[in-house]
Known about the structure:
Helices cover 33% and strands 24% of the residues. The protein is an alpha/beta fold.
Amino acid sequence: MTVRERAKAIEDKIIAWRREVHRHPELMLDTVKTAALVSSALREMGIEVREGVGGNGVVGLLRGEAPSTPGEAIRTIALRADMDALPVKEETGLPFASEIPGLMHACGHDAHVAMLLGAAKILSDMRKEFRGNVKFIFQPGEEGAGGARLMIEDGCLEDPRPDAIIGAHVGSLWNVGNGQAGFRPGPLMAASDRFEIFIQGKGGHGAAPHASVDPVVVGSHIVTALQTIVSRAISPTEPAVVTVGVIQAGTANNIIPDTCTMKGTVRYMKRDLGPYIKKRITEIACGVAAAMRAEAKVTYHFGYPPLVNDEDLTNRVRASAAKVVGEENVVTAGMTMGGEDMAYYLEKIPGTFFAIGTGNEAKGIMYPNHHPKFDVDEDVLYIGSAIFVQACLDFLGEEGPYLRK
Ligand SMILES: [Zn+2]
Ligand SMILES: [Zn+2]
């Protein structure tokens, strides 16, 4: 039986898990029910379970039982899924739509949980056929709370320490077609930082601007000047984004307000660009404000780091995926400037994050991730499980310690 056939044989189970999780979305770090579902499913498979990791995370550990020679280096590979939903009001009309008002699995993390449980089920049934360990990491808080960081701080990468880590995301992200898998060695997703600029002007009558310091005009100049960070201060060959998404000031058409507040996001692919962009934003905001007799204060928050895939492991998992879906369905994923906290694991351990194409226009599944009508083609989910399993078997099947090229 091929791995794909094994996965196909439990497809109903995988879809049932997905629907169960989809019905009960949970936000950020509060993935209590989802964690309970995951824990009990893993226990039923005879997998060691550690609960409450980094809050509501779950770590499963499966030890292969194929005989190994004494003293032989045993490898460990980790598979990761995120479990959190979004504050989105679901509009899919699905029979198993969210039962929690205002919350929805609109990023497909329900599918990630189901695919990983599917992989755990297949591998647990095959434990006599491989040596080494598989760690299953189910984390909360991907959508902004940095659940991965909390899991790492709580030791999810210790005891045993994985030699490699793999994660995947569903959707029609990165231009990956239905049933296809998309890989990219090196940088795949961006760091996502945020900033706030507070401008202190001097309010007054709208008809007497000379007697005020207008923070709206100052803010407008700052927004314009910030555009020069990407266009004039960073190499044109380096992807980066500085976006001001919020400007708040004023109450009436004829009043010059006292203050103006702006908020924005910053994206980049190379880690050392972060401090540089922070410096430029601060210099520009404070400099422009000072030139116009106002004062600016900048607050900058570093968020998820850039997501960088290990070249060797990406190529290995890509080869494993080709065994499952065929060479013609393994494609090169494009970079995106979206953020993803899988990046934290990849800073610690070599690994790869890849895309599984679950869009399907013929079935009306064509909305982007985070959309109220976002859905995944459930017929693809078992393929995700199969790729995870094949990658584990290939990685653990090699002799000796994992020596990076
Ligand atoms: Zn998302
Ligand atoms: Zn996501």
